[in-house]
Amino acid sequence: MRTQVGIIGSGPSGLLLARLLHLQGIDTVIIESRSRDYVLGRIRAGVIEQGMADMLRQAQAGERMDREGLIHEGSNIAFDGRLERLDFPKHTNGKVVMVYGQTEITYDLMKAHIDEAGGIVHYDAPAVRVEGSDTDAPRIIYEQNGQRMELICDFVAGCDGYHGVARQSLPADKIKIFERTYPFGWLGILSDVPPVNKELIYANHERGFALCSMRSHTRSRYYVQCDTNDKVDNWTDDDFWDELRRRLPPEAADSVTTGPRLEMSITPLHSFVAEPMRSGRLFLAGDAAHIVPPTGAKGLNLAASDIYYLSRAILAYYKDRRTDLLDIYSETALSRVWKAIRFSWWYTSLLHKFDDDPMSRRLQIAELDYLVNSGAGRTALAENYVGLPYEKFE
Ligand code: FAD
Ligand code: DHB
Fold this sequence. Notes:
single chain; alpha+beta; eight-stranded mixed sheet; 37% helix; 27% strand; binds flavin-adenine dinucleotide; binds 3,4-dihydroxybenzoic acid
């Protein structure tokens, strides 16, 4: 089998790339290790930057997002019994974020790319490795129905997440890894109850961090910081709701509506970057190349900015035989990635409980107090949260 761009992974980055290239007449084949239902069942991110929302519109997969997504013009930080609102448009020249679940984005992209445009995705087909990335015809080796298969491509996009094989196919001596593990995780619940507040609340509390988010006016997503080794089985629904309420300011705690879980899971927190994001004709995008702790809601949005740069670079190659954008892909994508890595690390450090040292806590409260009382502090937070601009190319 042959295609122009072989894509490993049908998460948001793989599907978005396939969709954008298809609209420009470029052929793709996606190789995905799991089933379509499994991919759709993963509950993950919920906050979308304007840049990503624009990409989904450009991919002609943004119509339902524009109808059902919730535009948020601010978010709240709770600390020391206070609740402080951050106004996004005021501090960012009018920018906002969109609350719309990753599951819905994946569904919309699958519908547009596979069901309506006939795009090819091989599900239940794990890629094993990429060969020949230093040649003009790199190959994805994968398995399907117990058989070894080969997809020959002009380019390969490794969009196969943190545990994928694309990154491992890069020459080990040419790749540099940066990583940091945090001594806690997030326990998340999804429940069909109205959100406690119309905007998100990020809470710093002496018992640990909590986040109140949502998927719609009737579906809430909440998180509490938990031990790294904690297990979902240790938590009843009531335990979760009690712990969440303890970590919110009293007024918010009193307004929490509780209900049974639709889903409960634990996410470890991790910062990770692999440099460069390219070797020959193999390009990495999204979680395959970098991971952020979820505190700033940047993971999914970084996947979209990588695809912004990669899709333009591939298009320039097929349209004008230009290779300059392919050559600067890694450098350009990483420049934005590192800023999000920094922001997510900083926001995580500011809001979580790292130890029992009372000095650490006082320092966090002092920084939060400074931040909300400073126009410069509010602007720095808001600019990063709504998303830094994408670099434009001629
Ligand atoms: P993925 O979504 O991971 O997609 C990769 C795809 O590749 C998957 O479908 C996988 O099955 C497939 N694959 C893997 N290996 C192979 C192989 N060998 N062959 C073929 N296919 C393969 N971000 C936020 O902003 N906010 C959040 O709240 C948040 N919560 C998260 C919770 C969890 C549990 C996780 C894991 C991530 C979370 N993220 C969150 C991060 C966000 O979901 C990711 O950044 C985003 O999914 C990245 O998209 P991606 O397409 O690059 O990777
Ligand atoms: C959600 C997750 C985040 O990490 C975040 O910062 C905001 C919202 C969410 O899942 O809704």
